[in-house]
Amino acid sequence: MKNNPLFFFFFILLFVACKNPQKDNPSTVKATPKHTEQDFAEGFQLMENNCFTCHSPNPLLENKVAPPMQAIKTHYITSKTTQERFTADLFSFLNNPTEEKSKIPDAVKLYNIMPKMNLTEAQISKIALYIYHSELEKPTWYANHYEAERKRFSAATALSPIEAGQQLALKTKGVLGKNLLGAINSKGTEHALSFCATRAIPLTDSMSVALNAKIKRVSDKNRNPNNKANAEELAYIETAKLAIARNENPKPQLTTLGNKQIGYYPITTDNMCLQCHGKPQTEVLPKTLTKIKSLYPHDQALEYSTGDLRGIWVVEMDVK
Ligand code: HEC
Ligand code: HEC
């Protein structure tokens, strides 16, 4: 019995099973002196607010508008890929998504190129950290870990009002972007026009309920007459435009009015927007233009280029 190899095998198996740290721990990433709980929390929340809307972690979801994050991870990270290499690759693509840079050309054919997002290098590094160290590529991650991860990390980050407002704006933008992209891909630009309206998006998540938040989008050159910026909003728009003219990222702003706090956040254009907000005839094609003119006879929201300030998010929250 003592020399029976099977016995040893059994013994080792038992040992491994008991030592497995994942067994009773629903989380999939661990803080180390190099990567703190806060870093992972920020990475996860950035993905919640900016990526998972299109790259759903739910492998069973139908009507996808983009490949699931686990598929992206396995294309970008092999056993030899270092975290530094992955971060650099992710930054290179997100900073300017093009077909040439794509590592998954089939995804570009299937879904169209990903719209550019305005994330800083620091934010992309945190996203890369989370993707690299988590186990989201495992088939059971969504079913077994996703909810636990949400709970764990929402407790880990206490957001200031200006950050909470920004998260709400980003989430709304994500839902809007997903609907818009889905509609353009399946029906074409002129049929997608109704998907650029925010009013249909209910803010139901726990954060917006807790903050009693309201969100709207306004512009100095509005398309919908209801989206016209008021005097305070116009003042912020001017500040944001000056920052862009200096090649800087416009900073969000928070104002207190009575028992309300109002956060202002910039909205800039990427390539995708120009098919409805760019140069008439060449970028906004005649068919689309005709439809826009019939829906919005007083439209001012044309002639934009990439990287322009298209408008702002206005998030109204209760003062705590
Ligand atoms: C509005 C929808 C949308 C959002 C939001 C979005 N993506 Fe994408 N993404 C896509 C689509 C569509 C593709 C597939 C086409 C492509 O590869 O460009 C894609 C592809 C990718 C790829 C693979 C690129 C390649 O082809 O090599 C990476 C990496 C990626 N996304 C990362 C992210 C990250 C990180 C976030 C969050 C910060 C994010 N995406 C948010 C739509 C989105
Ligand atoms: C398919 C066409 C289409 C695309 C693509 C599109 N928009 Fe729009 N956009 C519209 C329409 C239509 C409205 C008016 C929505 C409404 O009635 O509230 C609008 C309104 C807006 C508004 C609100 C202010 C206003 O002018 O009424 C902002 C801000 C905005 N779009 C930004 C963007 C950005 C940024 C992009 C690219 C990421 C984009 N849009 C892409 C059609 C589009």
In short:
It contains 12 helices and 4 strands; from the N terminus they run H-H-H-H-H-H-H-H-H-E-H-E-E-H-H-E.
Overall spatial form: globular
Number of helical segments with 4 or more residues: 12
Number of domains: 2
Largest sheet, in brief, is: 4 strands, antiparallel
- The poorly predicted ranges are 5-26
- Rounded to an integer in angstroms, the radius of gyration calculated over CA atoms is 23 Å
Separation, N- and C-terminal Cα atoms: 69 Å
Q: Sketch the topology as an H/E string, one letter per element.
A: HHHHHHHHHEHEEHHE
Small molecules bound in the structure, each named once: heme C
Rounded mean pLDDT score: 85
Strand order of the largest sheet: 1-4-3-2
The helical percent reads 40-55%
Percentage of residues in DSSP E strands: 5-15%
Give the strand tally. 4
Helix and strand composition category: alpha+beta
